[in-house]
Design goal:
mainly alpha, 80% helix
Length: 66
């Protein structure tokens, strides 16, 4: 899927920074935790955070239109 704008990378960077800040304060193994979370996100959300949000919004719109 081609990227049409920079919304995805911006949202991803913001989420990554918040996740990193939380992980650093949570454990000394923050790098491993962050790596695990990123791998899970890539597997679970193949279209990314914004792509998944768009898919969910479209599903809600379809459901509410019925």
């Amino acid at each position: 899927m081609a990227s049409r704008n920079f919304t995805g990378p911006i949202v991803g960077a913001v989420v990554f920074n918040y996740l990193k800040t939380y992980a650093v304060g949570f454990t000394v193994y923050w790098q491993a935790l962050l790596g695990l979370v990123l791998v899970v996100l890539v597997v679970v959300l193949p279209t990314g955070i914004v792509g998944t949000a768009r898919l969910l919004a479209a599903a809600v719109r379809r459901r509410s239109a019925q």
